[in-house]
Design goal:
21% strand, 162 residues, alpha+beta
Length: 162
């Protein structure tokens, strides 16, 4: 016959408390909060030094002289039998003294953009990553029309494909 002492020794020992888990979780939260504060406040991995930031009374660098010439909105039908439309609106960045020259050439710019956008493949228009390449292609065509040194950049303000 088994003794009472044998029965007591076969019983599983009581589970350890969850104190270690709670302490570890609290320490992890404190460490994460401290790391966030350190990086966010600029103490660590800061791109700016104290000398780079201008005080309110100090002189800051002037922006370059630029002007923007708006391109009238373009709506192009694309796809089989013109089933889809592309709405395009942009502005051309130019030097202020070139604004009138570029505005005078706007019909040619519209013609070049219209022809290019109609020739672009439908799959390429649907791909969001291709906008950078399309922008570069359009800028190059505008620069060919306007001549060297007139147009600095093309800023796309609306590119809706529906």
């Amino acid at each position: 016959m088994p003794d009472k002492t044998d029965i007591q020794t076969t019983v599983e020992p009581a589970k350890k408390g969850k104190l270690g888990l709670i302490v570890g979780l609290v320490l992890a939260l404190i460490g994460a909060g401290g790391a966030f504060f350190t990086v966010n406040s600029g103490m660590l991995f800061s791109a700016e030094s104290e000398h780079d930031v201008a005080a309110p009374g100090e002189h800051t660098e002037q922006l370059p002289a630029i002007s923007f010439v708006p391109i009238p909105p373009i709506v192009v039908t694309v796809g089989p039998a013109g089933s889809r439309q592309l709405r395009f609106r942009a502005e051309v960045e130019v030097a202020p003294e070139r604004t009138e020259d570029v505005a005078m050439l706007m019909p040619r710019i519209l013609d070049v953009l219209n022809g290019y956008l109609r020739a672009v493949d439908l799959a390429e228009l649907e791909n969001p990553a291709s906008l950078i390449r399309l922008r570069a292609q359009m800028l190059r065509r505008i620069q060919i029309v306007t001549g060297t040194g007139h147009v600095r950049d093309l800023l796309i303000t609306e590119f809706v494909f529906s």
